[in-house]
Amino acid sequence: SFKLDRAGYGLFAVVQSAELKRVLSNLVNNAVEALGDSGEVQLELSLESKHAVISVSDNGKGIPPEILSKLGLRGETHGKEGGSGLGLYHARATAESWGGNLSIESELGRGTKLLIRLPIASPPGWFLPCLEYKSGTTIVVVDDDVSIHQIWQGRFQSLQVSKDGVTEIHFSTPQELKEWVAESQNRISTTLFLMDYELLGHEETGLSLIESLNIAPQSILVTSRYEENAIADHASRIGVRLLPKGLAGFIPIELKKPLELPDAVLIDDDNLVHMTWKVRAKQVGKDLRCFLTADEFFAEAKIFDPATPIYVDSNLQSGIKGEVVSKDIHALGFTTIYLASGYEPDHFPPMSWIAKILGKEAPF
Q1: Which of 296, 290, 41, 6 is nearest to 129 (CA)?
Q2: What is the share, in percent, of the chain residues with pLDDT greater than 90?
């Protein structure tokens, strides 16, 4: 079985995908062999500090302590007839080559857990951290795969989205979608389209349909081909977000509530910093709004209370300096501005519009 909680969704690490698949396949095979005639093997992805943790656990016989300390070394094996120990050695060496590590926990009679810890990396620009909908939304799913329709139906039904006035509509062909869009122009602005890329038997793709129907702002491309540069570039060019089809069953789905004023604002061009600050904000019960660029913040600045604490990275995209941006923010009437920088405070000249120079860790 596979377990993925909210904190585990959206974790990225820099690895070679083929090697990771090989490592996990070997570890799962080892766990299955350790079960004997019956038992369970579970894979789990979770967040631990700044690491993504992949665990492979079984409820088999477990490993004696005197053997456990040697596992992962070349030539050491346990409970596998004819085994060389190279699979576990390779897994450890591979994890370490990616800047991570492998550890083994085991208890006789209860089972074994292998944990691969990898440094988390910033999500790619196309990544969709959460699927949000508003009250009264119409959700249109377009896919030629019946099983995908069933996944979305199951997820929306379990969330009881109908209580929020949400309507689901399912299509499997471009023509069905076109006819519905032509008849429902007054509903387009409140519709969320979940579109497959490749519709078998049809020349049109999900992206060409989105573009021709002018529904990019309301659309998400749900595809297994998200790693193909041509598709990702096309989606980016027309402003469409991507969701790997394999994550349809796991992506968090939330009702988007009316906008509430945040407790703090962060402007930083690093998605990883956003993630770590959001985790900390949630732990202490604070509402944090994050922006990748100053322009994104300025587009919404008028809705924020001037007393809202604003945290600005010193080095933003395209060589833009946070200390300069902060002065512009101060000119809008904001009174509590912090520079969040990796530099020491004495690196900067005096700046009357800056309340304090902080580090890159979340200050709350």
Answers
A1: 6
A2: 74
Decide if pLDDT at 79 tops 70.
Answer: no
- Is-contact 54 113, C-beta < 8 A? no
Beta strand 41-48 with 51-58: parallel, antiparallel or unpaired?
antiparallel
Neighbours of 246 (CB within 10 A): 10
Give the number of other Cβ atoms within 10 Å of residue 108's Cβ: 12
Under the banding of pLDDT at 50, 70 and 90, the label for residue 206 is very high
Query: What pTM, to 2 d.p., does this model score?
Result: 0.64
- The residue with tokens 């700046």 is 351
Q: Classify residue 244 by burial, with Cβ atoms within 10 Å: 0-12, 13-18, 19+.
A: middle
CA dist 69 and 64 (Å) reads 9
Q: How far apart are CA 296 and CA 320, in angstroms?
A: 14
Q: Report whether pLDDT(76) > 50.
A: no
| Residue 72 predicted with pLDDT over 70 | no
Q: Are 210 and 235 in contact (CB under 8 A)?
A: no
Instruction: Using alpha carbons, list the distances in angstroms from residue 159 to 155, 167, 194, 248, 262.
Output: 6, 13, 17, 14, 26
**How distant, in Å, are the alpha carbons of 83, 106, 112, 313, 329 from that of 295?**
58, 52, 50, 14, 11
H or E stretch at 212? helix 206-213
Closest by CA to 273, choosing from 126, 116, 123, 101, is 123
Whether 364 and 286 have beta carbons less than 8 Å apart is answered as yes
In whole angstroms, how far apart are CA 7 and each of 12, 89, 269, 294? 12, 29, 21, 27
Radius of gyration (C-alpha) of the chain in whole angstroms: 25
Burial of 83 (0-12, 13-18, 19+ CB in 10 A): middle
Backbone angles phi, psi at 121, to 5 degrees: -120, 165
| Cα(156)–Cα(170) distance, integer angstroms | 13
Q: Give dist(CA 178, CA 250) in Å, integer.
A: 29
Question: Which secondary structure element, helix H or strand E, spans residue 230, and what is its range?
Answer: helix 229-238
Residue 192 has pLDDT above 60, yes or no: yes
> What does the pLDDT average to over 170-176?
97
